[in-house]
Structure formats: structure tokens, C-alpha cells
Amino acid sequence: MPYKFPDPCATANLPMAGDEFPYDRHSRPGEPPETLPAGSMTPFTDAVFSHIFIPWNHITAKFPEEICSAITTTPEKFIAAVPFGAGPKFYTDNRRADLLLKDFLKGLDFPDKGKLTVFFPLEAKKDKKGRNRDKSRNRRSAFDKPWPLVITGFSENFRKFLL
């Protein structure tokens, strides 16, 4: 008797690995928050996006140890905002990126945002001669591993809206 191949269209009994597979997730999973913002002073795209998966060791590569341990113990209190192409060059060119992000978040017409804090989790390293190493970076490292901004102090409903 010849081997009968399984029907490729019969996928009803196959396992679903959505919970373990981080590459197929989108923003705003689950129930939306009770209240949504009525508008914003700054135009933005209010859409659902695919989550970008960045490994823990890449996103925290430049973080000080105390911030890494704080995020490890209470990850629900932190959001990493990763500007597109943000590396050392981005922060050299945009020294006020943390203030601009905080102003944007405060400009959202959301009733309970919490007490927002946005900060850079890294400090410029000094070499042995006392110069700032970031000024003498070569072009290759200008866009290296992501350097996110960290958002804390948000309310639970605002977190649901942002994520």
C-alpha cells in the first residue's frame, strides 16, 4: 500500500505557537484601554504595527548595570522607545530627543498619563586622554546596536495605548 501524504490544507489540528513566537506580534494586543486620546498637538500615525524583535543583549548593550537590573526586576514599569536608525550618530545630532519625545507624549490628549519620565540610559565614555570617544567615532559605528530612550512613570491605561 503506497504512503498517503497528509493534506497540506488541513491545518486545524496543528499546534499554534503564537505565544512562543515573538516575531509575529503586533502593537495593541488585547482589549483597548477604557479611554483613548481625543487628539494630539503633533500629528502621528494611529495604526497597528508589527512588533520589532530586538534581543535583550542588543537593546541593553549600552545600559548601565543598575538600569538593567531595575528593568529585569520590574519590566512592566519601563518602555524602550527605539528611534529608527538610532545609534551614537542619532544622539549626537539630536541631543534633545528625550525632551521632544516627552513633549509629544504629554501633548497627547489622554486623561491619565501618569508622571512621565523619558531619559537616555547611557553616558558618553571618556578615553584615557579625557576626550569624548563619541566625537571620534568612525562611520561604521555611527548606526550600531540600537540605543533606545527609556520611558517610565506611565499609567497602566497609557501603557496599553502606547503598546
Summarize the structure.
The chain is an alpha+beta fold. The chain has helices at 56-59, 65-73, 88-93, 97-107, 156-162; strands at 79-81, 114-119, 149-154.
Draw up the topology in text.
Layout: H1 56-59, H2 65-73, E1 79-81, H3 88-93, H4 97-107, E2 114-119, E3 149-154, H5 156-162
Antiparallel strand pairs: 1-3, 2-3
> Sheet with the most strands?
3 strands, antiparallel
What's the helix count? 5
User: Strand order across the biggest sheet?
Assistant: 1-3-2
Query: What is the succession of H and E elements?
Result: HHEHHEEH
Structural class: alpha+beta
* Rg, nearest Å: 21 Å
* Total E-strand runs: 3
Distance between the termini: 55 Å
Summarize model confidence as the mean pLDDT. 78
Task: List the uncertain runs.
Answer: 124-132
State the shape.
extended
- Percent of sequence in beta strands: 5-15%
